[in-house]
Amino acid sequence: MASAVSGGVRVLLRIEGLCMFAASLLAYGKFGDGWGSFALFFLAPDLSFLAYLAGARVGAVAYNLAHSLVGPLALLAVGVLAPVPAALTAGIIWLAHIGLDRALGYGLKYSAGFGFTHLGRIGRVRAEAG
């Protein structure tokens, strides 16, 4: 498994996540469809957790697809350029979700298991067998 980021770089990446979350909230306040829709769809990317039922490798791929910036940025581009208001709304909500996850330390996953992320280990760290 590749090593996770640590130290000041990890802190900076988590601050970036917090800024992404805050900017998304501001954007949603201006361009969104109401806070009820935001609350309803905010956790939708976490449905990708279900892929872990098929194993860690499949789960990591599904989680990373749902938590990469590529999807929401593509939706935002369609929302602005087409224009498609629903795509803009969905892209903002999706970015807010990713931003909060990253601020809390939930990074992109490695296939070693759910707790192994690019932002470091999450969850309980098991004691090394001596």
UniProtKB/TrEMBL annotation:
Q: Where are the transmembrane segments?
A: 12-29, 49-66, 73-96
Keyword field contains Membrane? yes
Top-level taxonomic group: Bacteria
Q: What is this protein identified as? A: Uncharacterized protein DUF4260
Q: Which UniProt keywords apply?
A: Membrane, Transmembrane, Transmembrane helix
Xref: InterPro entries: DUF4260
